[in-house]
Specification:
alpha/beta, 10 helices, TIM Barrel
Length: about 250
């Protein structure tokens, strides 16, 4: 989809247990993201209608359901694909890892179902490793996203954002029509600059923009680290000097 090309997609989601979950505010998150320059929104099925009524950019839809017999939870079953086809999202995202799906559903069956019932919808494969990406190409996905890197048993020790992995996926997709989407653990401008140098089709950022509790926790932790260093005898003088400099300059 040309509208997504070389742009930032913002994931507007809240998880169960978070203050924003179920508060019907994701369309406002999406509006703010688009005003800031987002070219697309990634969202849960229940929020798609309100988001589409608020912004005019493409929406990548998904469902999240936890099952006792599988670690796969992103658009895991045919009924999830069916529910997304009933919305107006332009792209459907699904877990495309090689892990066993709930009820032993096959990934290729989900792809076939979507292609038969809505051939105009595009499909995004959320992957965690190179083998997932290669399989997604074979199955005919339109996009491969590095979404699940670090979130599977085999990749749990990956340091995010795993830019080297993004680069490997980009190489796997070279020579094909499948587009690479960079996603996962992106927080800093420098990280975004380095990812941009890979020339991904688009980049998805979620937590760093739309999860206030985690953003606050991260900044509060960094502040605490600085205060501890400031109190350490070896750096007390330097801390006092910096404090005096900032007090002269006011809020920056």
């Amino acid at each position: 989809m040309e509208k997504l090309r070389r742009g930032l997609i913002v994931s507007c989601q809240a998880l169960k247990g978070e203050p924003l979950y179920g508060q019907n505010v994701m369309h406002l998150m999406a509006k703010a993201a688009v005003e800031g320059g987002a070219v697309g929104i990634r969202a849960l099925r229940q929020d798609i209608a309100a988001i589409k009524a608020t912004v005019s950019v493409p929406v990548i839809g998904l469902t999240k359901t936890v099952f006792p017999d599988s670690d796969v939870y992103i658009t895991p079953k045919p009924e999830d694909v069916r529910a997304l086809l009933e919305t107006s999202c332009e792209v459907i995202a699904m877990d495309a890892t090689l892990r066993a799906r709930p009820g032993n559903v096959r990934l290729e069956d989900l792809v076939e179902y979507a292609r038969v019932h809505a051939p105009e919808r595009e499909l995004m494969a959320d992957v965690a490793c190179e083998e997932d990406a290669e399989n997604a190409v074979r199955l005919g996905f339109d996009y491969v996203s590095t979404t699940l890197r670090g979130y599977t048993a085999d990749t749990k020790n990956a340091v995010l954002p795993d830019i080297a992995f993004m680069e490997r996926v980009k190489r796997i997709l070279s020579g094909t029509k499948v587009k690479m989407i960079a996603e996962g653990g992106i927080f800093e401008r420098e990280e975004m600059r380095r990812i941009g140098m890979l020339d991904p089709y688009a980049v998805v950022v979620g937590t760093a923009i739309t999860r206030p509790a985690m953003i606050t926790r991260r900044l509060a932790s960094a502040l605490n680290d600085g205060l501890l260093l400031c109190a350490a005898p070896s750096v007390t003088g330097e801390g006092q000097r910096l404090s005096a400099e900032f007090s002269d300059g006011g809020e920056k």
